[in-house]
Amino acid sequence: MALRPTDSSALLIDGKLVPGSGGTFEVLNPATEEVLGSAAEATAADMDAAIAAARLAFDEGTWSRDHAFRAGCLRQLCDALQSHIEELREVTIAEVGAPAMLTSGPQLEGPIEDLRYWADLAENYSWEEDLGAAAPMGIPTARRVFKEAVGVVGAITPWNFPHQINFAKLGPALAAGNTVVLKPAPDTPWCAALVGRVIAEETEIPAGVVNIVTSTDHALGARLCTDPRVDLVSFTGSTATGRTVMASAADSLKKVFLELGGKSAFIVLDDADLASACSVAAFSVCVHAGQGCALTTRLLVPRARYDEAVAATAATMSGIRAGDPSKPGTVCGPLISARQRERVEGYLKLAVEEGGTIVTGGGRPADRDRGFFVEPTLIAGVDNSARVAQEEIFGPVLVILPHDGDEDAVRIANDSPYGLSGSVWGTDPERVNRVVAGVRTGTLSVNGGVWYSADAPFGGYKQSGIGREMGVAGFEEYLETKLVASPATT
Ligand code: NAD
């Protein structure tokens, strides 16, 4: 089978690749604005059929109980996807606008390889634990704890790292024994649909275990939240949508797992190498045009060296060109859509209205007449209460803020509704550790340490989310706990 980016894609429902009842919708290349092809447009009836298939596969199949079979299927899926890696890479660059260099990591190869980690967990996890004998209320009792799959998982994902986020849900949910209905973002249907095709045609994953429903209709995501046949909603997206997801899941009291937005701080202490730290901060916010929830978008530098820091950061940012994502050297590709570009440009205008200065960037690159590109942009001269310092912009935009020492840096970092990620740069380990302890976020990098890997739990404090993705903590989000007490035999 060849997966070509010009194919029209199908839904995967109950093991079959089927057209959408609503016809098709166009898939755009954000770097060229060309129509790449079409994706299946699902309707509420398709979503209903997908949920029914997942429910049946969970309730009547052996999937949730056969740990070794599931591990085998996940390895089979990993091998099959790896055999299509170049075709998938082509699709990912074209559909997502993902820089080619990222597809050897988190945009493609990383999350596919991570399927082996989830397979190993399915096989090696302690599914059963003996609590030992006790005599509650004087009755000798043996107690065992069993870990079991939650049931049907509704997975709702965004467009910025579609493979990473789709597999961060499919991997642990399937390894834990659940069945899944995946609803990817309307901007990136192919990344999910092609995985659906590989599952249907090249794996033994039973019918109904994975269902993939592409659509431009956000209301189909909402149906996953309200349908009582779905036991858990695993959502990654904006904080605003996360609130709606949580509210709509309340009626049926389903488990809700949320990975949301961020406005993370990059803290440079006064004993750090300022120029190097600023350069790293400048580079990281340009990766994938700043479309990463965990990117550090506020740079906090010592007030006494603010001007020097602004100059060093601007020097790096002005050297990074937003360009063709298929070129090997490109770090900063396009934004995903005209709508996102408008949103980012709105924030650039707002920065000036709020009294800020655009030090570098601020517009569309002069050498690009097609594609949703925005120049890497540095905003200076605002304080942390400015909306551009408080709200998620989701573009290659960095706000540089002065701090008055370690405690003040922690205060500013925490003065945010979000708590997803962050970075601390300094040379004195005691000071660094104090700052790390003070920052209220789920993930922190110290002096450039890399936190992303299959076994490392990732997630947010505060309004950045509920629960953890990846690692054993991420796997356990998809499990229930059953305690069984029986008379102790002597
Ligand atoms: P979004 O919230 O607009 O959409 C995400 C998904 O939710 C899409 O599939 C969409 O169709 C669906 N959806 C929309 N309305 C819904 C509703 N009422 N009920 C159920 N589902 C609904 O987000 P986006 O614009 O696609 O992605 C960007 C956002 O995602 C950013 O805020 C970013 O920070 C966040 N994000 C977070 C993480 C993380 O792990 N914390 C990772 C990546 C992206």
UniProtKB/TrEMBL annotation:
Keyword flag Transit peptide: no
Transmembrane segments: none
Xref: InterPro entries: Ald_DH/histidinol_DH, Ald_DH_C, Ald_DH_CS_GLU, Ald_DH_N, Aldehyde_dehydrogenase_Rv0768, Aldehyde_DH_dom
Alphabetically ordered keywords of this record: Oxidoreductase
Domain Aldehyde dehydrogenase intervals: 20-484
Entry superkingdom: Bacteria
PROSITE patterns (alphabetical): ALDEHYDE_DEHYDR_GLU
Active site: residue positions: E259
GO molecular function: oxidoreductase activity, acting on the aldehyde or oxo group of donors, NAD or NADP as acceptor
Stored PANTHER family: ALDEHYDE DEHYDROGENASE, ALDEHYDE DEHYDROGENASE-RELATED
Family, similarity comment: Belongs to the aldehyde dehydrogenase family.
The protein, known as: Aldehyde dehydrogenase (NAD+)
Source organism: Rhodococcus maanshanensis
